[in-house]
Amino acid sequence: MRRFFDKALSIFLSFAFVCGMAGCSFRPAQETSDPDVYVIGFSQLGSESDWRIANTKSMNDTFANNPDYELVIDNARQQQENQFAAVRRYILEGVDFIIIAPTVEDGWQTILTEVHDAGIPVIIMDRSVAVDDEDLYLTNIGSDFLRQGNLAVEWLEDEIPEDTEIKILHLQGTIGATAQIQRTKALEDAVAKHPNWEITSQLYGDFTEAKAYEVVTDYLKENSDIDVLYSENDNMTFGAMRALDEAGISYGNGGQVKIITFDATKEALQYCHDGKINLCVECNPMFGPRVKELIENYRNGLPIPKHVYVDESAYTTQNITQEFVDSREY
Ligand code: GYE
């Protein structure tokens, strides 16, 4: 496993790179005086995970070398207030289009009304917003997080005989984020259906490796009786694996703890291929080209569907090859 600090440094450098390339935040949009350049303000919620880094990079790669567009990115560092500030700045600067990857679902009604009143079209990307009026945004492009959770529990149903009791440790991402709400719902619904399944604890990992390492390390000091780790993203899984290693608890194929993780980044797929992670449920961050297509359709007056889901599947040691891992873009 890559050492944590190396990893943290690489995440920082990747985001710095992406920000550098994209002119990330802290500089005014519409630096260009060319009225033909279409300016997009993008409020990215943070840089908490490898998924997020890949998502920012996909957006940047799509628009960076295109003279017709200027993409301005703000990293909100997982704080919704920072997103509000960025969006208000984009309104003041008069951008042509706004993209928001929202931290959590609640709290968007006022700010989206402000954007709507300013006449700026909005795409909600990745997670969703809970607002009274769906006309406040053009479309929501992202994953079907409930389907992802259901893929995970269906796999577990196949693995566990009905008469076997299992104890599940549940690592949760940012509370109130669509990815957390739906992945949690799938697990809780399944536990309610299976009297032999028990969630021993729900630990808050905030989608980060560092937080997950901390909470799982603490948890393992008092409890080591775990059969399954259901971790709502890969980076939290990496933190938990480190905590399990330090506690001397085995995991993966043939180990004490079966590991289920979400995202299926290259690093997680490698662990899965090597038998250290049992199931990787895919969550595709490569939205850039599809977002561009949606914006172009909007500009050409074509109809835009209200929800756009990306295609995803799930991987186990049995169904991935090294070639597939090597070809992974994120
Ligand atoms: O699973 C996680 C990220 O909302 C899809 O957020 C996203 C989730 C993803 O931090 O790694």
Shape annotation: elongated
Q: pLDDT average, as an integer?
A: 92
Radius of gyration: 20 Å
Number of strands: 12
Strand and helix layout:
Blueprint: H1 4-22, E1 38-44, H2 50-63, E2 69-75, H3 80-93, E3 97-100, H4 109-117, E4 122-126, E5 139-142, H5 145-159, E6 166-172, H6 178-193, E7 197-204, H7 209-222, E8 228-231, H8 234-247, E9 258-263, H9 266-273, E10 279-282, H10 288-299, E11 307-309, E12 314-316, H11 322-327
Parallel strand pairs: 1-2, 1-3, 3-4, 4-5, 5-11, 6-7, 6-8, 8-9, 9-10
Antiparallel strand pairs: 10-12
Bound molecules: beta-D-fucofuranose.
Residues 48-49, 51-52, 126-127, 143, 177, 179, 207, 233, 262-263, 283 line the site of beta-D-fucofuranose.
Summed up:
Helix content is 43%, strand content 19%.
Keywords, separated by commas or semicolons:
single chain, 330 residues, alpha/beta, six-stranded parallel β-sheet, six-stranded mixed β-sheet, 11 helices, elongated, binds beta-D-fucofuranose
Write up this protein.
With 330 residues, the chain is of the alpha/beta class. The chain has eleven helices and twelve strands. The strands form two sheets. It has a six-stranded parallel sheet with strand order 2-1-3-4-5-11, with helices on both faces. Strand 8, helix 8 and strand 9 form a beta-alpha-beta unit. The two termini are 17 Å apart. Residues 1-30 have low confidence and may be disordered. Beta-D-fucofuranose binds at residues 48-49, 51-52, 126-127, 143, 177, 179, 207, 233, 262-263, 283.
